[in-house]
Amino acid sequence: MWCLPFSWLYRIRPSVVHDPFKALTQSTFTNDFRACPPNPNQLRWQPFDLPKNPADFVEGLATVCGAGDPKARSGVAVHVYACNQSMKNKCFYNADGDFLIVPQTGDLHILTEFGQLHVQPREILVVQVHMSVPLAGNGMLVTFQQGMRFSVQVSAPSRGYILEVFNTHFQLPDLGPIGANGLANPRDFLSPVAWFEDVDSVDYLVVSKFQGSLFSSRQDHSPFDVVAWHGNYYPYKYDLAKFMVVNAVSFDHADPSIFTVLTCPSNTPGVAVADFVIFPPQWSVQEHTFRPPWYHRNCMSEFMGLLYGRYQAKEEGFAPGGASLHSMMTPHGPDQEAFEKASCVELRPTKLEGTMAFMFESSFSMAVTQWGQNGCSKLDGSYYRCWQGLRKNFDPNWKPQQTEEPLTSPEIIQS
Ligand SMILES: O=C(O)Cc1cc(O)ccc1O
Ligand SMILES: [Fe+2]
């Protein structure tokens, strides 16, 4: 039975004991997408820089693109983070919506109001003590829903991607004919157990994101003073290696919605505010098929990132820690090299291994921020060239080769 998301938190002091909020300026971070000039071009970013100066998770937040308005509780934003410092006596919460965080490099140890979890890369969870997101080479997501306070601790330079949704929360996609099991299974989502610290007489900074702007307020105690909680509204993490991949096993290239890990639905059935989709290791077995993605134009904005390895449609040029954006109805698809390779390759069963790309796919038409356009200095001005060498292959006299036994072969039992 579905019930409204809620949690009861039993804490040492109520959260209301704090000084007034003050505006916090951070020029790289924004939710004001009306100010961003439209740009329909295919865009690709080289890997975003790791911090050159000391920066914690909040200081290292930068917005790449987005649409909508948190005041209207409608829209999405795509941010990246790059940090090399732990948040010390400092936490963050988002009053506007949910953050789905996808680390690309570096462990994140996260203190939350709901507790901490610690998982070493590839370790099966046994003891729940700290929250940690494994290193690149694996792939993990962690979701903080509206209002949840958290503090990110790092031990090495760390970088990742964030999908923010203003409308509602992420949920598992409907499995439809797949049935009861498959894709991301509910049992693999892990949540913290209650943990608290009773720390007084500190100068603690609570950073909030409210109506698209950042604020800070001071208090004299740790906000992680929740001694117990219950409910169904809590942060969670998910190891992308647990995703059960479903794909075409006969012919043709399936829509990437079959790789949806989580979706934030809109009020229109079948249309997502945003989907989080992965391109995980998998077998390719389709016959009579150009196996990489088709060339296409569609009614979604597609922001892609690469956690590790190579993406099938662009083996070069799309690097781990970088990104691409293909906007509504803007044509895109495999680069020339991928096209030529996949057009000639023998279609044996092949295992795509050692790779994890992902897509934040939104029905909102996203605009690129000033930081995304210029500030980050990572935009690849020559991206469009990767398609310019594609030539026509149309031959009006072409006839299909009979490479297989005809269907009337006596070997085949016909009904
Ligand atoms: O454009 C992309 O690379 C993402 C994508 C992958 C795919 O397999 C099918 C459609 C699609 O948009
Ligand atoms: Fe696409």
What's the short version?
With 415 residues, the chain is mainly beta. Helix content is 4%, strand content 33%.
What does this structure look like?
- The protein has 415 residues and is mainly β.
- The chain folds into two domains: 7-241, Jelly Rolls; 256-380, Jelly Rolls (Sandwich), CATH 2.60.120.
- 4% of the residues lie in helices and 33% in strands.
- The strands form six sheets. It has an eight-stranded antiparallel beta sheet.
- Strand 4 (61-69) and strand 5 (74-83) form a beta hairpin.
- The two termini are 44 Å apart.
- Mean pLDDT is 91; it is low at 119-131 and 406-415.
- The structure holds 2-(3,6-dihydroxyphenyl)acetic acid and fe (ii) ion.
- 2-(3,6-dihydroxyphenyl)acetic acid (OMD) binds at residues 256, 293, 302, 313, 326, 332, 359.
